[in-house]
Write a structure and sequence with these properties.
The complex is a heterodimer of chains A (156) and B (140).
Chain A: H1 10-28, H2 35-45, H3 52-71, H4 82-87, H5 90-111, H6 115-124, H7 128-151
Helix pairs in contact in A: 2-3, 6-7
Chain B: H1 2-18, H2 24-31, H3 37-58, E1 62-63, E2 67-68, H4 78-94, H5 98-106, H6 110-133
Antiparallel strand pairs in B: 1-2
The chains are: A mainly alpha (156), B mainly alpha (140).
């Protein structure tokens, strides 16, 4: 059952995501960010002190995405991974993606935010730290992607 | 407060998945500068939120659950930039980031779960290093 378009247009999703940032500030005076939500969820799972609202934010991320998947045609359990999955065997893909996730998590926590915390919330707040971080991770990611693209002869 | 966080998180997660930000190919094509949609999405989110935050802050907006609204603004530090460069490297390889990795997993991607597991591991290591050095990371 496809109740959603295959891809919601940027001019609908973008402004609504901006309003999510505003809503969390306007209702609860809290900054929207995923990295600290991961960190606090980990603390909760380990039985350590944690900020409950961040864990609920984390649960919300998953629940909302789950509903969208249902409305976009239902869940599909898959091991496909775009062009990366077509060029690498699963045995190599699993450790590569886990390692990339590890690097991302380490870097985001070190930086104090990721694409949501710095890229959206912090940039919308005109925070100098977030503007610098967003410029840096965008430039780095574009450069690394270009290197991989040329190193693989355009395969990736 | 918890209900607000759940509702905002669910809306955000829904939009991430609905806009296909949970697709490796969408993010990879964005980073190859092949399509502008994700840049436009991020830009429009910031363009909508920024003036509203400024106006509400100037009006000393009183929130129902958190007192007078205060928007966090931090000066640039070395860790902001170095951490962002490390984050950007992982983002380029995985073609996903923290919320989209959760959205991938929620949609049934087995490999998305490995990215999310890696994210937990990297965050745990950095948190431990910060605890040992007694320098708490800036909350985002």
């Amino acid at each position: 059952m496809d109740l959603l378009p295959a891809r919601l247009a940027w001019y609908i999703a973008g402004p609504l995501m901006g309003l999510c940032v505003v809503a969390l500030y306007a209702l609860a005076n809290k900054p929207l960010g995923a990295t600290t939500a991961y960190s606090q969820t980990l603390s909760a799972a380990r039985g350590k002190r944690f900020e409950a609202w961040r864990v609920w934010l984390f649960v919300g991320f998953i629940a909302g995405a789950f509903v969208a998947a249902l409305l976009q045609g239902g869940l599909s359990f898959t091991t496909s991974y775009g062009s990366l999955g077509r060029h690498l065997p699963l045995l190599l893909l699993v450790p590569l993606l886990a390692a990339a996730g590890f690097v991302m998590g380490f870097g985001a926590r070190w930086s104090g935010g990721c694409t949501s915390g710095h890229g959206l919330r912090g940039s919308a707040s005109l925070s100098p730290a977030s503007l610098a971080a967003t410029g840096t991770f965008l430039a780095t990611a574009i450069a690394v992607t270009a290197v991989v693209h040329f190193a693989t002869g355009g395969a990736l | 407060m918890k209900g607000v966080a759940l509702l905002v998180g669910a809306t955000f997660g829904f939009l991430v998945a609905a806009a296909r930000l949970d697709s490796y190919q969408v993010i990879h094509d964005m980073l190859l500068l092949r399509e502008p949609d994700v840049f436009l999405l991020m830009g429009s989110a910031v363009a909508v939120a920024a003036p509203l935050l400024v106006l509400m802050e100037r009006a000393r907006w009183r929130t129902p659950f958190g007192g007078v609204m205060t928007v966090q603004r931090n000066p640039v530090t070395r860790r902001n930039v170095l951490g962002a460069a490390v984050f950007g490297t992982g983002w380029a390889v995985a073609g996903t980031c923290p919320v989209p990795a959760l959205a991938m997993t929620a949609g049934g991607s087995v490999l998305g779960a490995f990215v999310a597991a890696g994210l937990f591991g990297g965050i745990a290591l950095r948190d431990r290093m910060d605890r040992d050095a007694e320098t708490p990371p800036p909350a985002c």
